[in-house]
Amino acid sequence: MSSLVISIAQLDYHTGNFEYNTQKIIANIEAAKQEGVDLIVFSELCVCGYPPRDFLEFGNFIKQCNQSIQAIAAACTNITAIVGAPTVNPVKEGKDLYNSAYVLANGQIAEIIHKTLLPNYDIFDEYRYFEPNRIFKTVSVKNVTIALTVCEDLWNINDNPMYIINPMDELMQYKPDMMVNIAASPFNKQQIELRRQVMVDNVLKYHIPLFYTNHIGAQTQLIFDGGSMVLSATGDIVDTLGYFEESRKNYQFNPATKTVVPLHETNTQIPQTQERIWNALVLGIKEYFLKQGFTKAILGLSGGIDSALVLVLAVEALGKENVRAVLLPSRFSSDHSVNDAIALAINLGVPYDIISIEDTFAALEKTLAPYFNNLPFNIAEENMQSRSRGVLLMALSNKFGYILLNTSNKSELAVGYGTLYGDMCGGLSVIGDLYKSEVFDLCAYCNRNRIIIPESILTKPPSAELRPDQKDSDSLPDYEILDAILEMYIEQRLGPDEIVKNGFNSQLVQKVLRLVNTNEWKRLQAPPVLRISQKAFGPGRRMPIVAKYLSES
Amino acid sequence: MSSLVISIAQLDYHTGNFEYNTQKIIANIEAAKQEGVDLIVFSELCVCGYPPRDFLEFGNFIKQCNQSIQAIAAACTNITAIVGAPTVNPVKEGKDLYNSAYVLANGQIAEIIHKTLLPNYDIFDEYRYFEPNRIFKTVSVKNVTIALTVCEDLWNINDNPMYIINPMDELMQYKPDMMVNIAASPFNKQQIELRRQVMVDNVLKYHIPLFYTNHIGAQTQLIFDGGSMVLSATGDIVDTLGYFEESRKNYQFNPATKTVVPLHETNTQIPQTQERIWNALVLGIKEYFLKQGFTKAILGLSGGIDSALVLVLAVEALGKENVRAVLLPSRFSSDHSVNDAIALAINLGVPYDIISIEDTFAALEKTLAPYFNNLPFNIAEENMQSRSRGVLLMALSNKFGYILLNTSNKSELAVGYGTLYGDMCGGLSVIGDLYKSEVFDLCAYCNRNRIIIPESILTKPPSAELRPDQKDSDSLPDYEILDAILEMYIEQRLGPDEIVKNGFNSQLVQKVLRLVNTNEWKRLQAPPVLRISQKAFGPGRRMPIVAKYLSES
Asked: Which of B424, B378, B434 has its CA nearest to residue B523?
């Protein structure tokens, strides 16, 4: 057996954009040919983009996948390519599709390997579309025997196995020389370490090298960080392809010794937590705009910490010339809020406007006076202010083609401390998966080299400024306590008794859990949230609305 | 073998409300005992309510399920009860739960049968939570051998089998005397016939009687119509338990002859299409309010057909004393619209207010004038009017505790012909799964005995009245054509070429499909839609947002 030059292509695809994806894949195949590559490996479902979701149920969409595969196969002369795409299940029984790895060589489809373990939890819905593989076979490239699997197929290795089968256990009977896994493994702040550990565990179990190709890019809520990697048979991470960026790197594999030699400079560093969250959010914003053909963002800048952070992230993602900040003060806005907001906009060189909501709010008050009948000022008037801001921002958005960025954080979204159709407006929720305490942490990261967000924004007590001298702490516990309870309920899914046992006041825990459960209706209408945790609000968390569970007052 | 008296309990449960569900189940068991019932059958997951969704991932929720099962079992003396609840999977491998039918007798759990076929399509997510059953066994009650299955287990019987296994095929080896199936089969306008056919097909295949217990009630978007039924071994529907209402009926089963004798008056009638849609929507509204403890609804009454229909449905569901109509005219509202709206409110005896949006709209215009710079009136100003209405309605809602009913139809939602945070506001979308042509049909049904909705509302050309002399037909094709294209794309999932082949203009088809695909972002923030079709917007239709598929202009 001669050695094999393998290229790992960690690329960004656009769901449903077959022309774009196909051209990108073919261009990389052509470039790899010039470099003498024998095998180039792309990521899971790269042909159609990931996740295709219910487009998989459209015959025309599958037809276009097949046409793309044919076009890519035609480019595969003197090279073998592995690409991910759906396959039609030829058998009547079972789901209509497989989630497959196509092996393309000699201008045609040489082999198709189907995914066995179909993730169907959190944001994953793969049993919705795909039949699991039940027939195990390896793939041969230049006499090298490859155990080829798709993403989840390598993940049934830890203490709480989610599946009753293990594809690599089945494939080992064919004595493969190496493993190849094509993946679309989304980012969360804990995922990088977890993913590395899973890959190391596989290599330590099966004692052959592993070439792991992940997707990079963002698709609405989901961010793919890349971090493709090559592991030696002894469990070392030989190289990674970087995080939050496209990359392609080549490796020489010696089947006799089962060793890997990198042909490019290697790097096995991983970004630290704040850096990775920062990069993920920037990528998430950037791609939300890019993939929809938008360029310009607008947001309401309150002088508070949440909108400050979103503004900085937006400027980094889109450029200061593409971001517009609008201050929308009311009679309850403090001078320091307005001044802080202006200072930040100036720091960033972002154009800003000050548009008072007073006239709009006054008109609403006047219009409703005959019906409100001198009833005391309450949540109705608070929401009217927030919604006046929403209407003004959306009007500017509609008039000039801005996309409104939402600035709600996860703590607020969790307890319903926000106004639907008011500050909950927006095309994209940038920090809706960061608890308030994490917002503070990320602002500190932002200011690590120089003060970008003014100190006074970071130090003043959080307030919605919807009534005189209002503070968040009037209605909510300190964020440190609130966030701890929320994390135990949302991420860990602990029950009230368990949370109390961890040292929290029973009444407070009951109140917080009740707020979370009775505000599902609000979150159902929230903008899509960039996902950076293991349990974000959005498609990965599916709660009933009219339920009555832990919702007694 | 002596004969067996079987009671079918078709009841309404409340997700997560363990006390309520448990008490209701026990009360029915006690009543059945008095009637000499041997076996009482409740529906799928009745103990926790259906669908429990991600509450199933909370340990405390499962603990409460188990406690309820214990309490119900304790009531099962001199009677056997079959109830649906999740079971913890004792094996480490696989998902943590089963979806089970508990057989309770002699004060304890006599047997647990797990669901084999886990629906994971449209609104169903059962692979998300449950491990499929792989061990097949029957249940014995007073020496009668019962093939007990859960919902989908009987559905793998038609031309396009979704699963590779058929539980009843496995169970027939034990020569059961009868089948019992516990279900939570949601309503759609075609489901009643389909469900009957599936049950008939099962009986015709297995030649034993079938006792089928379905859920009734509504859970946010999902409506359960009931329609539980008993079928003879020869394929006749012996009896049904009625649609859209709770019911419990008893039957005598003779195991020697495998025949069934109803012990109550029988009825096998099914409601016609408009009647069933009507009843489904009324139930959907009623339960959305009831299960959240709300009583009062508010809605904007435009003088158009959509809000007229929603008002009538709301009055039927909640009572006229609990519904408030608000007319929100602008400078572009026609006199006939206002007059038509008033006539309808008077017809129904519903209190109404006329609240002009002029002051609010004028304040917005004035506030934005320095920024809009005399740019021509366009979609921005149209949306400002719609959002002024939204803010005023939400203010009344917040002040007085009304729930705002949304009045968008499916055609509008499909093509994005509506204003986010404007007419798309609301806690519940009542007719968001009815195409505009279906709205007309249902209005005709509403007026079948006497004119409730004034003729002029039904006959005038649809208009949003957001600019002078605006008509829907300025921007959209005739609804007859639009709805046909939409149905082929959304329900049938045909591609553009196939739709054109069915006789539609190619450019028009491209335009409509593009509008559907580029408005996913708007629908993501729409209120929950009462589901009456096989493919409603909401949890059963999961489309990417930043995709680029059939979205070229």
From this structure: B424
Q: What is the pLDDT of residues A129-185, one digit of tens each?
A: 999 999 999 999 999 999 999 999 999 997 778 999 999 999 999 999 999 999 999
Q: Say what the pTM is.
A: 0.97
Contact B378 A371 (CB under 8 A): no
pLDDT higher than threshold 70 for residue A23: yes
Of B93, B494, B545, the CB nearest to A528: B545
CB contact under 8 A, A384 and B395: yes
When CB atoms are compared, the residue of B163, B371, B395 closest to A368 is B395
Locate the chain B residue with the closest alpha carbon to A65.
B549
For residue B378, give the chain A residue with the closest CA: A399
Options A46, A48, A115, A382, the catalytic residue: A115
Catalytic-residue membership of B151: yes
Predicted local confidence at residue A469, as pLDDT: 84
- Contacts B355 to A, Cβ<8 Å: 367-368, 371
Is residue A438 part of the annotated active site? The answer reads: no
CB–CB contacts below 8 A, A to B: 284
Which alpha helices (DSSP H) does A172-237 contain, by range? 191-206
Give dist(CA B240, CA B94) in Å, integer: 38
Q: What is the mean pLDDT of chain A?
A: 96
| Cβ(B453)–Cβ(B308) below 8 Å | yes
ipTM score of complex: 0.96
- Residue of B151, B425, B443, B446 marked catalytic: B151
Q: What is the pLDDT of residue A553?
A: 56
Q: How far is B288 from chain A (nearest CA, A)?
A: 6
When pLDDT is averaged across residues B7-16 and rounded to a whole number, the result is: 98
Question: φ and ψ at A343, to 5 degrees?
Answer: -60, -40
Distance of CA A216 to the CA centre of its chain: 10
Catalytic: B535? Answer: no
Give the β-pairing of B229-231 and B210-213: antiparallel
Question: 3-state SS of B252-283?
Answer: EEECCCCEEEECCCCCCCCCCHHHHHHHHHHH
pLDDT of residue B431: 98
Distance CA A141, CA A39 (A): 8
Asked if residues B256 and B244 have their Cβ atoms less than 8 Å apart, the reply is no
The amino acid sitting at A40 is I
Segment B437-471, tens digit of pLDDT: 999 999 999 999 999 999 999 998 888 888 888 88
**How far is the C-alpha of B433 from the C-alpha of B445, rounded, in Å?**
17
B546 to A128: CB separation less than 8 angstroms, yes or no: no
DSSP state of A487: I
Q: Do B392 and A219 touch (CB under 8 A)?
A: no
Cβ of B363 within 8 Å of Cβ of A368? The answer is no
Q: pLDDT tens across B82-105, in order?
A: 999 999 999 999 999 999 999 999
Provide the CB-side half-sphere exposure for B307 (13 A, CA): 31
> Which tokens in the block code for residue B542?
């999961």
Say which residues have a Cβ less than 8 Å from residue A131's Cβ, sequence separation at least 6: A89, A94, A95, A96, A97, A98, A114
Is residue B212 over pLDDT 70?
yes
Check residue B110 and give its pLDDT. 98
Q: Which of B288, B360, B399 sits opposite A372 (nearest CB)?
A: B399
Do residues B368 and A392 lie in contact, with contact meaning Cβ atoms separated by under 8 Å? yes
Beta carbons of A220 and B51 less than 8 Å apart: no
Is A547–B394 a contact, with Cβ atoms under 8 angstroms apart? no
With both helix axes pointing from N to C terminus, report the angle between B379-400 and A379-400 in degrees, rounded to the nearest 10. Answer: 170
- Out of B60, B164, B528, whose CB is closest to A495? B60
Instruction: Work out the average pLDDT over B305-334.
Output: 96
**Which pLDDT does position B553 carry in this prediction?**
56
Contacts of A496 in chain B (CB under 8 A): 60
pLDDT in tens, A420-471: 999 999 999 999 999 999 999 999 999 999 999 999 999 988 888 888 888 8
